[in-house]
Amino acid sequence: MTSPTNSDARPLPKPALIKRSMQQRTKLRISKDAAVATGAAVGYILSEVIEGAGNVAAEEGKKKIAPRHIGIAIRKDEELAALGRSWLIRPGGAAGHLKPLDESGQAVPPTTPASNPRKRSAVTNAHQYQGFVKRLAKARQLPVAASSVEALNNIASDLVERIAAAAGELAAKTDRQTIAADDVQGAVSGLLTGELRQHVLAEIRRP
Length: 207
Prior knowledge:
By secondary structure, the chain is mainly alpha-helical. It has 9 helices and 4 strands; from the N terminus they run αβαααββαααβαα. It has a two-stranded parallel ribbon. Strands 2-3 form a two-stranded antiparallel sheet. It is elongated.
């Protein structure tokens, strides 16, 4: 795990964007604080991925981060590898098979409640985080190939949905209809490990 990145220079996704994505995975209401906390978590994790990929690209003498650099960076970091073991970064930039796997490598059934009437819109969600990814890479002064922006966009979307699903389960256990920031912290604690978990939780709790 790398040292914590400089959060003062790190852009964050808009809470409204995060909220819309979270609503694809839960029928519960999303508080603004929960959306902000989720955005902080996703921003930190993506920063780690981008920084690691930038290091790989530099080692190869490349000026731009390519999708393979992202894949290598994730595999080289034990905690990112554990989080992203279901991510398949293709050369063209698509981050395929973005589904959580169980210990045997089988896809875990979706946790979205059966009564949730919302359906994912491929048109709406396809490129929703690309602008945020570009701002994040620019803040790190790391040029990113267009195909890599697509892969990072898909990773961001996957992270938001996984956090939303886990946070929704925590809120539902206490019969609450709104996901709060504490639920997001609980979700992050369950999804992440080691120093990555510590750093992301610290980022969420920043005033």
